[in-house]
Design a protein that fits this description.
single chain, eleven-stranded mixed beta sheet, Rossmann fold, alpha/beta
């Protein structure tokens, strides 16, 4: 299989926007589901640092399932969880941009989704539980529902949070991946605003089927957003190609589409295998 640098990528030297362009930040309200795990703390630290760079606020949100068969313990459970939340991410305890919310409800995913929609979250930062278990965890009911049904883009990664890589917070390039021209336009509309704020270059990967069936529409999208690099992938090797492209381009972020309500993405609604493979965070929009 050819590497991205051999035949799949064309490079140019343009930015999505000129350096003087004023663009409102696309992320202002980040929701972080919290389960008090180490990786949950890592994702929350990333969200707080990222929020600082884009002048956003962060909500740390924990949903506790009620105790089974013992409703008299409800007050005790709530008090205990609220104490844990107060101690969670102690370095941000005095940060006025960080809010902490605890809810008790049997439907964890539904409660998170309702809060995101009712409170205008424009990004959900979703922690995972490690590289080796990513497939099992991402296919779990709560995480799968969030990835599939979130009313806003979802950020996640399978990489370690031991030390947040600098390029996660300040990516040199943002790689987008799309199966069709309309999906690419939608993804680029979102990603270009983020790229402008972060002063990042935009790259895109198109499915070969899309390039073959919609050459004029795809060309129009690329001209509109002044693509920095372009590549083509085959449906059967999407995770591997995007992994190699991210590494070769030194992209600090990958943006993909979700199927829900939009043209079906070639990797399905969650992009599980992509998240597992690529060496950078993934935002699904």
């Amino acid at each position: 299989m050819a590497t991205p640098g051999e035949s799949r990528v064309r490079m140019s030297a343009q930015y999505a926007f000129g350096p003087e362009t004023e663009v409102d930040p696309i992320v202002s309200n980040i929701l972080v589901p919290v389960d008090f795990s180490e990786r949950s703390a890592g994702a929350a630290r990333f969200a707080v640092q990222f929020a600082h760079s884009v002048d956003a606020r962060v909500t740390l949100f924990h949903v506790e399932r009620p105790p089974e068969g013992n409703l008299f313990r409800m007050a005790e459970v709530v008090r205990s969880v609220e104490q844990r939340m107060s101690a969670f991410l102690s370095e941000s305890a005095r940060n006025p941009s960080v809010q902490r919310i605890v809810r008790v409800h049997p439907d964890v995913a539904g409660t998170i989704l309702r809060h995101a929609e009712e409170n205008g979250a424009d990004l959900i930062a979703l922690p995972t539980h490690g590289y080796s278990g990513i497939r099992r965890v991402l296919r779990g009911s709560v995480t799968a529902k969030l990835l599939r049904n979130a009313p806003c883009p979802v950020w996640t990664t399978a990489q370690t949070f031991a030390a947040t890589p600098v390029d996660w917070l300040d990516p040199e390039r943002i790689l987008c991946a799309a199966g069709t021209a309309s999906e690419g336009d939608r993804i680029m509309t979102w990603a270009s605003r983020l790229a402008a704020h972060l002063k990042a270059r935009l790259c895109i990967a198109w499915s070969r089927k899309g390039v073959r069936e919609e050459p004029e529409e795809i060309d129009r999208v690329q001209r509109r957003y002044r693509i920095d690099a372009e590549m083509v992938f085959e449906p059967e090797d999407v995770p591997e190609v995007l992994r190699d492209a991210v590494a070769w381009l030194r992209a600090g972020l990958l943006v993909i589409g979700r199927s829900g309500g939009h043209a079906k993405a070639p990797w399905g609604s969650g992009g599980y295998d992509i998240v597992r493979e690529v060496p950078c965070p993934v935002i699904s929009v």
